[in-house]
Structure formats: structure tokens, C-alpha cells
């Protein structure tokens, strides 16, 4: 009986691992391109303060930082993924809860590109300042 209940979870895990392996192969193939205007992309995101702790959080904090999922989904649908959490509601009664969440890992390359762009701009500004001070 327990094996019968676990089969959907095992199938989901196998599919997830297969998709992750395919994505990993595609990313290492070198077919990507540079991110254009990363700072302007980041400026479109709207950070918010959440007054209620996320369901998965055990932290005693009263404020959390995040993004408005509905606005982010309209502007950047690729950042939104569906997360499923399994919990037990009684003996032998697993219940799946699914919700939309922002995949923060996808923001890391964008943040790095934005830092690089700003660093280049700072170097240019420093050079202009040095030229003005020489006069």
C-alpha cells in the first residue's frame, strides 16, 4: 500500500531529475549570449516587504523581503516556477500543496551582469573625473 502511494512522488522525482539534467547539458553547451542592459532589467523588479512569514520559514523575524509574484510573472514569466510541498495529513495520507514562487537562482547571473556593468561605468566616470582634475 505504501509503495502505491509513493509511485507518483517517485515519477515526479524522475521527471524533475531528467529535466534538470537536460537543462544542465544545454547550459554547458556554450550557446548562451551576454545579458543586455542588466541594470534596466533589475530596475523593473519591484521588491516588497512581506509582513507574514513564508510558509516554509521557521524564522522568528516579522518582516521578509521578496517580490510581488503577480507583477513579476507579467514582466518575467521565466522567473516563476511552481513548487510542490508534500505534507502528511494523518496516517498514510500525503497531501500535495502547490504554489508559485520566484526562482531566485535565475537572478544570480543577472545580478552579476548588473554589477559588472556598473563597475565599467564607475571606471569610465573615474577616468573622466581624473581628466577634469588634471586641467
UniProtKB/TrEMBL annotation:
Keyword Signal carried by entry = yes
Can the keyword Signal be found in this entry's annotation? yes
Domain of life per record: Bacteria
Q: Which UniProt keywords apply?
A: Signal
Q: What is this protein called?
A: Peptidase S74 domain-containing protein
Where would one find the signal peptide in this protein?
1-21
